[in-house]
Amino acid sequence: MLTVLITEDQDSFRLALRAQLAQVEEIRVVGEAVDGGKAVEAAKRLRPDVVLMDIQMPFLDGIEATRRLKQQIPGIAVVMLTAHNDAEQIYASFAAGADGYCLKGAEADQLAMAIRVVADGATWLDPDIARRVLAQAGLSRALTRASPASAEARMAQNLQLSEREQQILRLVADGLSNHQIANELTVTPETIKTHLGRIMDRLAVCDRTQAALKALRQGLL
Q1: If you average pLDDT over residues 149-155, what whole number do you get?
Q2: Where are the domains of the chain?
Q3: Which residues pair with 156 in a beta bridge?
Q4: Which CATH class is domain 2-125?
Q5: Between 159 and 1, where is the model more confident?
Q6: Is 122 left (phi over 0), alpha (psi -120 to 50) or beta?
Q7: What is the DSSP string of 63-103?
Q8: pLDDT tens-digit readout, 130-151
Q9: Distance between CA 79 and CA 110 in Å, rounded?
Q10: Residue 130's closest CA among 194, 173, 98?
Q11: With contact defined as beta carbons under 8 Å apart, do 211 and 203 qualify?
């Protein structure tokens, strides 16, 4: 059973989140908070596995609250919730130590997947956001500057990708399809698919875009 703390200042959306998660058998909501400061206090008291954190809140915003949570409760996982897909907010969230980034309005199964992924120690980024972020110039440099000194980042130092795997992920980050990568590297699309399957398993992600983003964020490319 995964325990979750919901942090959201809008009553209607907070109730909607609780109702969504009530549909998921292995997830239990153990508390709610209406601003970042109350979220830090509640997390210290309740020790949830995952905090769902709104970004824009009064008194203390979600990014600063996440920074404080990561400093004060090592091992806690945080999924940022927002109605926006602004790249600066994404970088700032991960710089603060966030483990995931999900758009408000996501379906219950997608939200549940994000919770499971970050609880397992991996990184989650909404696929639609990931595609848009990867399409922006200078992503690698920006993520390198934003990368937090988290346990996940430290563990990544021991995770090495082969030269071929790095090459494939760079091409994914450049927006190439599997067929285009196969043509570029003079191999079959099936070979690229096999490589990507191994890469996704090693990085604990569920699609090729998240694999490229995580590798960039952790300095593996």
Answers
A1: 41
A2: 2-125, 149-217
A3: none
A4: alpha beta
A5: 1
A6: beta
A7: HHHHHHHHHHSTT-EEEEEES---HHHHHHHHHTT-SEEEE
A8: 666 665 534 444 444 444 444 3
A9: 12
A10: 173
A11: yes
